[in-house]
């Protein structure tokens, strides 16, 4: 296995002679294997190794025992050890992220503090297969089918050529121990369900299913790279005008003379350049833009992240629609069911569904947190696609459990909100039903009850000013 990993490292030029390599080591089987393998390979590839262990402040004494074990192993292997202690839950609240997102961000910040040339992490082929299946289930394109890249910037993944089973077999053969994280067996997380249910079923079809999926992901990455190169040339051919990251004008011939997949890649590139996001524009959005080529001039489609596309004569114009028009309000922004999007004022809105276990715990406790800029809603009481906008005529919300409605205009008057401020207050709207007056309150109709099955969490970064 050592030779296999060495060949993989050389194929992707992961480590050069004299590199300072930081290894992220949790104490689990995968990262311990990575540590042992790189220690063995430094005899053949001169490199400077150090270990960073991040204690997340979640698992109590078990987590501290992990840190002690990793430190002891590093001392035996003569590898410098650095420990970073973080409070994931506190960081998640501060950064307005999930606990998992906050943990990942903090880990990589800890790695970077050691000023390495390379950061080695222990993803393997099973992780690639799980990511591939996860993306397939949620919907994806070629980029998502590419799974986890072997190299991204200074981050390297030397174990992407081996499976979890190979890793454990190597550790057992060499009498090497590792620590177990009990949360890895929990099915509260989607990836754990894929790991414990879908992967074993796939291996019943073919025992090498994991390796085959990982190899397919590598081929997908090659195809994606080729398509990106081809679409970049098409972008240059059909680009008429660009205005920083606010507006792009494309020749309509992109949609009438090129293959649809080329046009889709060009649009994906434009969207990514203008928003910094690539995963939240769906195939239906790309089709809607392409369909403008067959519509009359002046037609418009709305896109995620406050974007819009127009047909103007023989061009397709894609631009940001963030400006608030005081007379008519802000153009509605489609809200993703799960994900994040920037708001016109620079804040970020995030949405996610709670795991089934979290739903039951919240219902059991009966005390829904009352936070100004984070709300928990009963998703099954929402009728249509949710948008973010400013006020419109006919807006209302429900003020009590008896579902007595109140006009938004009356609420603004009762709260003594200045007239010039009312057009700038963002509203989470389901038609004319206002689910959340950002910074103020939610509608009683979408509050969580003992009958709630799906809880939708919506949050925005805080700002100073009005709001309670």
Task: Give a topology summary.
Layout: H1 2-11, E1 19-24, H2 29-41, E2 47-55, H3 61-77, E3 80-85, H4 88-95, H5 99-112, E4 118-120, H6 125-138, H7 142-145, E5 151-152, E6 155-156, H8 164-173, H9 190-205, H10 209-238, E7 239-243, E8 247-251, H11 253-257, H12 260-275, H13 283-291, E9 300-303, E10 307-312, E11 315-320, E12 324-325, E13 329-330, E14 333-334, E15 339-342, E16 348-353, H14 356-365, E17 374-378, E18 387-389, E19 396-398, E20 405-407, H15 408-414, H16 419-422, E21 427-430, E22 433-437, E23 441-442, E24 455-460
Parallel strand pairs: 1-2, 1-4, 2-3, 4-6
Antiparallel strand pairs: 5-6, 7-8, 8-11, 9-10, 10-11, 12-13, 14-18, 15-16, 16-24, 17-24, 18-21, 19-20, 21-22, 22-23
Please describe the structure with a list of short key phrases separated by commas or semicolons.
468 residues, alpha+beta, Rossmann fold, Uridine Diphospho-n-acetylenolpyruvylglucosamine Reductase, domain 3, Phenylalanyl-tRNA Synthetase, Chain B, domain 3, 3 domains, six-stranded mixed beta sheet, five-stranded antiparallel beta sheet, 40% helix, globular, disordered C terminus
